[in-house]
Amino acid sequence: MKNVKIWIGVVVLLVAVVSLIWYLQQNKSDENKDAVSQATPYQKESRFSTIQSDREIFIHCSNSMRLAMEEIAGEFQRRNKIAVVFNYGGGSELFPQVILAKRGDLFLCHDPYESKIKEKDLLVDSITIGHLKPVILVPKGNPKGIKGLSDLGQPNLRVASVDPRYATAGKMVHAVLDKESWGKAVKDNIVLETRGHSDAANALLTGHVDAAVVWSFLGAMYADRLDVVDCNVEFPQKIRVTLCRLKSAANPDDAVEMMKFTESDYAKNIWTKYGYRASKQD
């Protein structure tokens, strides 16, 4: 009987511990969700609209290139009278859609998805239109004096980053943190990991964090509100932004025209403005 009471006590204690852990995780998750939801009003708005035309191209467009590509597509529509229809999402979301649906003329993505499309024998050709790299966004004036990724480990700093389960930039940053002696301190300061880069930047804009590690294009997008600090580390790869022409293209000739236009002087100025190219001559 005594042993039974002991076992019952142990079970009750375990249940209490598990419940406490669950509560703390949920509470932290709710705080993260609140940070993201309260940041939403700072999201840049799209002004793109598809024209009416008997000619149409369908583009799978990664969220990381959305605003720049919409600006380019708007001018393309005006000049060529060819309608552009977009399907948006993260690269990890769009890639399986391209494979399974086998629909679409073009896929605008960043590494590693061009290679993955080629491996699936769905690629006709591609062009490189720019590059991305992780950077650190900080409030104007850089009040915490951050000079690189290692500085994100300083005491009492709140950091937002993108979730390595979904984002290439998150994988790149965590790969560096895992091998550096100061990496654990930085990881301990990450209070918010988001699926999208804009959510991490918006958490910074609303004061929920002190710094955000995101793709470089957001530095150009929010140049009026935030400063950009280089990570000052060597990342193992350079991330290309590529426009892929797909074998599923219903309008291959019009898709080629769009590819050419994305390399025009007009488009190069847009890519440069949004931070995908260092200059028009790149």
Main pleated-sheet profile: 5 strands, mixed
C-alpha termini separation: 80 Å
CATH architecture of the largest domain: 3-Layer(aba) Sandwich
The portion of residues assigned to helices is 40-55%
> And the CATH topology of the largest domain?
D-Maltodextrin-Binding Protein, domain 2
Tally of structural domains: 2
Description:
There is one protein chain. This protein is of the alpha/beta class and 282 residues long. The protein folds into two domains: 56-131 and 239-273, Periplasmic binding protein-like II (D-Maltodextrin-Binding Protein, domain 2, 3-Layer(aba) Sandwich), CATH 3.40.190.10; 134-230, Periplasmic binding protein-like II (D-Maltodextrin-Binding Protein, domain 2, 3-Layer(aba) Sandwich), CATH 3.40.190.10. Helix content is 44%, strand content 22%. It contains ten helices and ten strands. A five-stranded mixed sheet has the order 2-1-3-10-4. Strands 7-6-8-5-9 form a five-stranded mixed sheet. Helix 1 crosses helix 7. It is elongated and about 60 Å long. Residues 1-43 have low confidence and may be disordered.
Walk me through the topology.
Blueprint: H1 2-39, E1 56-62, H2 66-80, E2 83-89, H3 91-101, E3 106-110, H4 113-119, E4 123-132, E5 134-139, E6 159-162, H5 168-179, H6 183-189, E7 190-194, H7 197-205, E8 211-215, H8 217-221, E9 226-230, E10 239-246, H9 252-261, H10 265-273
Parallel strand pairs: 1-2, 1-3, 6-7, 6-8
Antiparallel strand pairs: 3-10, 4-10, 5-8, 5-9
Helix pairs in contact: 1-7, 2-10, 5-6
